[in-house]
Amino acid sequence: MSDLKIKHTTATDQHFIKLVKELDEELAVTDGEEHSFYDQFNKLDSIKHVVVLFENDLPVSCGAIKHYDDKTAEVKRMYTSRESRGKGYAAKILAELEQWAGELGYERCILETGINQPEAIRLYHKTGYLRFPNYGQYTGVEKSFCFEKLLKK
Question: What is the pTM of this model?
Answer without folding.
Answer: 0.90
